[in-house]
Design brief:
heterodimer, A: 327 residues, alpha/beta, Rossmann fold, six-stranded mixed sheet, four-stranded antiparallel sheet, 31% strand, globular, B: 259 residues, mainly alpha, two-stranded antiparallel ribbon, 11 helices
């Protein structure tokens, strides 16, 4: 495997000041402040191959942002090793910055009162691209992201969706080998979300850019990523394909049925969730019974007019992983 | 090259506000009028004051004020970025955060200076008439004016970086502005102080923000200009080195958590 990212036993602990309530405690705190240690990242290890689109997910405070900041060289790890494109991010931050791109939801890289084209040109200079190369790259990204009509409109006049497209395009000016995307679709409507997801996939396919995505939106994870790493309380609690995540964590299927007559079934592992006239919704626990046995049993006593078998939504799977880790 | 582009792009961004800035700065006509009334009263019984004529005095003040009132918002920007943690995002780009901030703030300052400078010029010309040797002195005065703006930016960057250690940096800035008022020659030329005090204050860093650029314009000679230029270079180098050192130390304190 051609790894672009190798992380071994990465650790980061923060020391935060404790502020007690009350005037006396505040005065005491001035002379002898007390601190508590918070383990943000706890000995995590993983690899990412070139060209992969990987979801790095977890609840708030799980350690996602801290990990990304260590991967991009912003934060120094307390222990462990990181190699990003063969470089040590903290020691070779400047070198690495030419080879990675970042889109942090909280921080725009576009100049608010100027058109995106000005920011693109500036980024071309910041990344030391020669003018011809920068122009070609901007033309390519303009076409891929379909932002030609916004290039000369001040950023403040763009909608959020248009701005995010420009933000992602801006992060790709220097053809980074890895793109770190932190919540790229937050606040967008469903149509724009779908468009952004498609663009991310296009860039991955066209440039072989490795995408390292953090998002709370399960749509982003399910639609873009093949693999997911779930982090909670600073530890990796899942690292495998998104599909396997569904099957491993949720051994249940949902059957939505439209029948000739009302459903009557009594089998271990089968629970009728809802019935209305001749329609029914059933949950089957695959650890107790096979789906085919359930369908056969229904067909023996009834006539199935329509049927839909569905997987649990990814959201539920992820919630389950978080809650299992808590226990 | 990249910093030159940041500087020009900052100018372009500020130009979007230029008409609004002109309107806002109309207030300075009131300020200049108060100065004019005050100094006309002082000059009633004399023609010069420590070598300054009333014409030179009014031109001096409008020039000195242009530098001081053109302050950029870089200190607040840095403070906000440190407080909300976004300062770290500058670290993933191949540029120096400090030079980026200085380049951007210089673009802001120069554009902010234009309306005050223009209003001051019109006011001084209409109230006391033309200044002898203005055109000869102008290129030298403008060069030091840019230097004065740079010093102000560097002070602000240094104070802004103190946000890494202090939750509220307002008091530091308050002290600085008062020092510039008193010892920078902002309200009157330093020459008006008693000789021993003027001898000290003249070479403090605050004097190179306003006094030396304004004096170069109204009492131009190469000696004044060169003294102003040397002082600016020395203090700008010191303040820049200080900000670079502060940022290097501050970076080690960065432990932004969250997300």
């Amino acid at each position: 495997m051609n790894c672009v990212l190798e992380v071994r036993n990465l650790e980061k602990t923060f020391r935060t000041k404790i502020k007690s309530s009350g005037l006396a405690a505040s005065a005491k705190g001035l002379f002898s402040p007390s601190y508590k240690s918070v383990v943000a990242v706890d000995r995590i290890s993983f690899d990412v191959a070139r060209g992969e689109i990987i979801a790095f997910i977890g609840p708030n405070g799980a350690g996602k942002s801290t990990t990304i900041k260590m991967l991009t060289g912003i934060l120094h790890p307390d222990a462990g090793d990181i190699s990003v494109l063969g470089l040590n991010p903290h020691k070779q931050r400047r070198q690495l910055s030419y080879r990675i791109g970042t889109v942090f939801g909280q921080k725009s890289q576009l100049w608010f009162h100027l058109p995106p084209l000005d920011s693109f040109n500036l980024l071309g200079d910041i990344y030391d691209l020669d003018r011809t190369k920068a122009r070609k790259r901007i033309a390519f990204l303009t076409e891929v992201f379909q932002i030609g009509e916004y290039l000369k409109v001040p950023v403040r006049k763009l909608s959020l969706g248009e701005r995010i497209r420009c933000e992602i395009a801006a992060s790709l000016i220097h053809e980074p080998e890895i793109l770190f995307l932190d919540e790229p679709t937050i606040g967008l409507d469903v149509i724009v979300k779908a468009r952004i997801r498609k663009l991310i996939k296009t860039i991955n396919a066209e440039d072989q850019t490795t995408i390292f995505l953090t998002s709370h939106d399960t749509g982003d994870i399910g639609n873009i990523c093949r693999r997911a790493i779930v982090i909670n309380h600073g530890r990796i609690v899942w690292d495998d394909t998104v599909n396997r995540m569904k099957y491993s964590f949720f051994r249940k299927k949902k059957l939505a049925l439209r029948l000739a007559s009302p459903l009557k079934i009594d089998m271990p592992g089968v629970e009728i969730i809802k019935t209305k006239n001749s329609s029914a919704s059933v949950e089957v626990d695959l650890d107790e019974t096979d789906l085919s046995d359930v369908i056969s049993a229904i067909m023996k006593s009834n006539q199935i007019r329509d049927m839909n078998i569905s997987n649990p939504p990814l959201e539920e799977v992820i919630s389950m992983i978080y809650s299992q880790d808590k226990t | 090259m990249k910093y030159a582009r940041i500087f020009t792009i900052s100018i372009r961004e500020q130009l979007a506000y230029l008409p609004a800035m002109f309107v806002r700065n109309l207030f300075f006509i009131v300020l200049f009028f108060i100065f004019y009334s005050l100094w006309t009263a002082i000059y009633q019984s004399r023609t010069t004051l420590e070598g300054f004529t009333i014409v030179q005095m009014i031109w001096y003040l409008t020039f000195a004020e242009s530098i001081e009132l053109a302050r950029s918002g870089v200190m607040t920007q840095i403070q906000d970025e440190v407080k909300d943690g976004t300062v770290v995002y500058g670290l993933v780009r191949p540029f120096s955060y400090i030079i980026f901030k200085i380049s951007r703030a210089m673009g802001e300052s120069i554009i902010r200076c234009l309306p005050v400078f223009g209003i001051g010029f019109v006011f001084a010309y209409m109230s006391v008439g033309p200044l002898d040797g203005y055109l000869t002195a102008l290129p030298f005065g403008l060069l030091l004016l840019i230097g004065g703006l740079l010093l102000n930016v560097l002070w602000q960057v240094n104070i802004g970086l103190l946000s890494f250690w202090f939750e509220e940096i307002g008091p530091f800035f308050w002290i600085l502005t008062k020092l510039v008022f008193i010892m920078g020659g902002l309200f009157f030329p330093i020459d008006l102080y008693p000789g021993w005090l003027a001898g000290i204050v003249r070479y403090l860093p605050f004097a190179f923000s306003a006094y030396w650029p304004a004096k170069t314009l109204v009492q131009f000679n190469h000696g004044v200009f060169l003294t102003g230029l040397q002082g600016l270079l020395i203090y700008a180098t010191l303040l820049f080195s200080c900000s670079a050192a502060l940022f290097t130390i501050a970076r080690k304190r960065v432990h932004v958590q969250g997300g």
